[in-house]
Amino acid sequence: MLFSRGLSRISRIPRNSLIGCRWLVSYRPDTILSGSSHSVGDSTQKVLGCREAYLWSLPALHGIRHQIHQQSSSLIEEELDPFSLVADELSLVANRLRSMVVAEVPKLASAAEYFFKMGVEGKRFRPTVLLLMASALNVQVPQPLSDGVGDALTTELRTRQQCIAEITEMIHVASLLHDDVLDDADTRRGIGSLNFVMGNKLAVLAGDFLLSRACVALASLKNTEVVSLLATVVEHLVTGETMQMTTTAEQRRSMDYYMQKTYYKTASLISNSCKAIALLAGQTTEVAMLAFDYGKNLGLAFQLIDDVLDFTGTSASLGKGSLSDIRHGIVTAPILFAMEEFPELRKVVDKGFDDPSNVDIALEYLGKSRGIQRTRELAQKHANLATVALDSLPESNDDDVKKSRRALLDLAQRVITRNK
């Protein structure tokens, strides 16, 4: 009953209405820096408003999933494993990454490849998203063409899109190395962090080296718009980290400020990389923005669930110490939501968490509040918005395109349900 009602509600909404509401809840990076009133926090409130317009409930989400599933009877109805779909390409990307981070100085080479070695590569989440997005936006080469020309052009495009996945992963790992130094972390991905094993100086230099390699690879694409996009990502990473380090008492209590910082530190990389994938494929500005919106909302949902897991996960499952954020004085969404319910918690947050007793008090308030639940709900809203962006892409009869879009749809929900 609920399923059919949600499906009916979604199916009655014209595509243009969905796109229109997408623009209501979307925020642009340039407005964040310019101090415009259209902040990320505003977008959060508008998400709640849009919810009343077309009910972003779980049944409605299932309605969208059902529509995508019904596009082709040749597709198997059971959920796909997104990682398996691009497993061969992921291996190619991983091998090329290992060759790209080789340095003349052995010590630097050893440091640079630390998180690219077999077994410690991580989930390779970002390359998976980008390779699936490349397939989801696949453009058929116009015919007629000489024998083999179409295949050659398709192969060249795919190689360039794989390069985006490699660049993105290098930027991501470089940011992890720098973050671990700033946070004085001693573990990452279940092993000793590079700064813990080799020292802060070498960890910083290894991160710089990865960024320089990413720049060289980026320049080889010879696409000024793509170069500008990913250069902006590096700026956003620095901006987000600086925002985190220099918060005032008022900013530490602000959900708007927190979401701005989260976009810069987490969502900018995946959103702009998805847009770059679309631009390389020659897609329209509208399609490129839909790819951007998918990546942005996926990235925000990912980080919000990370916030939850920092309180509910274990060190073994996370590959890092649980409660690491609050112990480093970083106030995240669950605590911010708890403060809305219990204003007296603000005094504890203002005091900071150098005193372990303040951590215990904050956790006690969090346990009494709906902070964890509301953070999950906000993450689900962003996952739903990622789904809407995906569903708004131009229709295609290509089975590989449909399969990749289904996989991206599933990834949006895996982000919500993951436990590590």
From TrEMBL:
One GO CC annotation: transferase complex
GO biological process, alphabetically ordered: isoprenoid biosynthetic process; ubiquinone biosynthetic process
PROSITE patterns: POLYPRENYL_SYNTHASE_1, POLYPRENYL_SYNTHASE_2
Keyword terms, alphabetized: Isoprene biosynthesis, Magnesium, Metal-binding, Mitochondrion, Transferase
Gene3D superfamilies in UniProt: Farnesyl Diphosphate Synthase
Pfam families: polyprenyl_synt
Principal subcellular localisation of the protein: mitochondrion
InterPro entries reported for this sequence: Isoprenoid_synthase_dom_sf (IPR008949), Polyprenyl_synt (IPR000092), Polyprenyl_synt_CS (IPR033749)
Cofactor(s) demanded: Mg(2+)
Annotated localization: Mitochondrion
GO MF annotation list: metal ion binding; prenyltransferase activity
UniProt similarity note: Belongs to the FPP/GGPP synthase family.
PANTHER family in the record: ALL TRANS-POLYPRENYL-DIPHOSPHATE SYNTHASE PDSS1 (PTHR12001:SF69), GERANYLGERANYL PYROPHOSPHATE SYNTHASE (PTHR12001)
Protein name per the record: Geranyl diphosphate synthase 2
Organism: Azadirachta indica (Neem tree)
Phylogenetic placement of the source organism: Eukaryota, Viridiplantae, Streptophyta, Embryophyta, Tracheophyta
